[in-house]
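EI: anyone free to look at a 288-residue chain?
SC: sure, send it
EI:
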Amino acid sequence: MAYHRGGRGQIVRAAVNAPYLERDEERELAVRWRECHDQDALHRLTSAHMRLVISIAARFRNFGLPMGDLIQEGHVGLLEAAARFEPEREVRFSTYATWWIRASIQDYVLRNWSIVRGGTSSAQKALFFNLRRLRACLARGRDRIDEPHLYDRIANAIGVSRDDVALMDSRLSGPDLSLNAPVSEAEGPGADRQDFIPCTAPLPDEAVGNGIDGERRSVWLRRALRALNERELRIVSQRRLSEDGATLESLGSQLGISKERVRQIESRALEKLKIELVRTQPDRAAFL
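SC: here you go
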């Protein structure tokens, strides 16, 4: 079932006119749907609970999303609840469905409120949906609370870090901004926000210096590696000089020795390398 934005009034009227279900009738419909996949039973069960969907969706109307879309997402959660409901547990369907409806609407809000994906953990969701409410409640107190202490109290109440509270508060305080948008109309199209993002790349002279230093260190290392025997060189190369870094177990299998023996050979080889580097480059010993 899909709901069009223009049909919101029809949805509300249909929900209001749907009959309430007694416990026994509700259980019978749930059993018919679960055991026989009776579509009529599913329709009657979900129609009777559309009031609940609309009520929960109304709690999220302040996030700037169409009410019709919120109701549709709530209906998806209602159908999911019907698919998972176990009548034999003697729990009212509305009690069970409430969690699924709310979770479905919350996921929709998180996906569409901002193009920047936020945290998806339960703590982050609780922070997103409760930050404004907690902030308002604390602000209504008699004593004025400054910003750092306010963040600390909210973090303790929800169970997240203070930095998470500060980051979420900054996200909720304003809409998304495009980096390609002009800083101001007066600046014209040539002054985009992205033009003011600082570059973290090294300066040209730093890049050249780092390249020269890297080449020198490579030469020193190649010379020092000549002091190792064939097995030591193989272990150091695969353990320390490759991106993946072989494990002690895999090298032990290749060489036919135990992983503890591989560790001993590696330790001895690294000590030999250090001695050789100090011998050939005594002025660089402090950096080893």
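EI: The longest helix spans residues 204-225.
SC: 👍
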